[in-house]
């Protein structure tokens, strides 16, 4: 008997290809620079909090994560009613698509950008409408707003954008949102990498738009700067009616007890966060200096990764790096051809990357910046 076929549009969806898991490695450990994880790990307080919480792992967690929600609200000057926790930002993206897209309705997305947007939209029966980035590799809020039609219900903005890295000024997001006020459209601002944005820049978070009760959802995660990727916990900030709707379609007990404990402890350890962010920005600056020395072509990133132009398909270049014990990410699945995405790591990991780069450049020459 044949199996039941899925909806036709799902046949076309590429399966998400994650970076290599550390525990699958044998032999000398590789430099894991493919998945934008923190090379510096979580706060020691978070590790202790997980150990303490593990004694109650046979009990269901707090379904609303009320203590963590309250701490986040205090930190970001929000009402707890404006916050919803999720099993990583990916779950929150899916909740938005399920809650706000009827079959045939549209969601405008930047491209190249995070794959989860198109996947969630399509699974919900919606239509992704891709909009090209700016020449610098940032989400183009002007063109995203222009792409809104009568069928549009969601507009996604990824800032800093994954996999390119540039960020969008909050003022540009506000201008787009204000132009859309009065239309049945919700703007989703994915700020997974916001902590890494250079404070000397004018770029700021769009959380102020939530405080102003505008139709905006801001997504954040504990996976990157806080080093909790293995526990999967993120949060959304939005007007209360949006939070209530997302909570209605969210699975019960979405965030596990260990993740809640770790996130609360990590949030309180501001010193560790500052150390990680400082080390990441330093690694990013040194990486760009090394790239400039070699003439390599990179996007100007504000995240914990840098996208570099390659002279061959990204998957082929990533495979060549893997033979040198360095894991990087080819960006074709994001919609960006002939680039690799390199997560910033420790000095030792970055040294291994450049040693591998010099070796690979002889066989697969990297494009050079015009002088």
Summarize the topology.
Layout (H helix, E strand, L loop, with lengths): L7 H4 L19 E2 L11 H10 L12 H11 L6 E4 L1 H13 L5 E6 L3 H9 L3 E6 L8 H6 L5 E7 L11 H11 L5 E5 L16 H5 L4 E6 L12 E4 L2 H10 L7 H12 L1 H25 L10 E5 L4 H10 L2 E2 L1 E2 L8 E5 L3 H17 L8
Helix pairs in contact: 2-10, 3-10, 4-5, 4-9
Counted up, domains total: 2
State the CATH class of the largest domain: Alpha Beta
Summed up, the helix count is: 13
Mean pLDDT: 94
Instruction: Provide the CATH superfamily of the largest domain.
Output: Type I PLP-dependent aspartate aminotransferase-like (Major domain)
CATH topology name of the largest domain:
Aspartate Aminotransferase, domain 2
Q: What structural category arises from helix and sheet content? A: alpha/beta
Q: What is the CATH architecture term of the largest domain?
A: 3-Layer(aba) Sandwich
> What global shape is seen?
globular
Strands of the widest sheet, in order across it, are 2-8-7-6-5-3-4
- Round the Cα radius of gyration to an integer and report it: 20 Å
| Largest beta-sheet characterization | 7 strands, mixed
Q: Approximately what portion of the residues adopt beta-strand conformation? A: 5-15%
Q: Could you give the order of the helices and strands?
A: HEHHEHEHEHEHEHEEHHHEHEEEH
Number of strand segments: 12
State the end-to-end distance. Answer: 64 Å
């Amino acid at each position: 008997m044949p199996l039941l076929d899925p909806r036709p549009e799902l046949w076309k969806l590429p399966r998400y290809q994650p970076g290599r898991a550390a525990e699958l490695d044998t032999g000398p450990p590789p430099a894991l620079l493919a998945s934008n994880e923190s090379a510096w790990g979580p706060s020691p307080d978070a590790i202790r909090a997980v150990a303490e919480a593990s004694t109650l792992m046979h009990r269901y967690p707090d379904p609303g994560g009320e203590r963590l929600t309250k701490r986040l609200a205090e930190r970001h000057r929000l009402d707890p009613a404006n916050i919803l926790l999720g099993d990583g930002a990916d779950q929150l993206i899916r909740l938005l698509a399920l809650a706000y897209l009827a079959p045939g309705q549209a969601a405008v997305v930047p491209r190249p950008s995070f794959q989860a947007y198109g996947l969630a939209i399509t699974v919900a029966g919606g239509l992704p409408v891709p909009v090209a980035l700016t020449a610098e590799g940032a989400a183009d809020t002007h063109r995203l707003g222009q792409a809104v039609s009568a069928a549009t219900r969601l507009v996604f903005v990824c800032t800093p954008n994954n996999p390119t890295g540039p960020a969008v000024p909050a003022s540009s997001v506000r201008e787009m949102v204000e132009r859309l006020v009065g239309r049945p459209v919700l703007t989703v601002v994915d700020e997974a990498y916001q902590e890494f944005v250079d404070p000397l820049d004018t770029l700021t978070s769009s959380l102020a738009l939530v405080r102003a009760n505008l139709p905006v959802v801001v997504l954040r995660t504990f996976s990157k700067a806080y080093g909790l990727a293995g526990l999967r916990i993120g949060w959304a900030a939005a007007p209360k009616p949006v939070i209530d709707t997302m909570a209605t379609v969210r699975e019960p007990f979405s965030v596990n007890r260990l993740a809640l404990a770790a996130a609360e402890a990590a949030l309180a350890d501001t010193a560790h966060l500052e150390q990680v962010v400082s080390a990441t920005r330093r690694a990013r600056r040194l990486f760009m200096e090394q790239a400039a020395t070699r003439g390599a072509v990179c996007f100007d990133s504000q995240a914990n990764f840098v996208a570099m132009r390659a002279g061959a398909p990204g998957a082929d270049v990533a495979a060549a790096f893997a033979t040198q014990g360095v894991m990087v990410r080819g960006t074709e699945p994001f919609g960006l051809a002939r680039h690799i995405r390199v997560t910033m790591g420790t000095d030792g990991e970055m040294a291994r990357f450049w040693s591998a780069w010099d070796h690979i450049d002889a066989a697969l020459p990297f494009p050079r910046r015009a002088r």
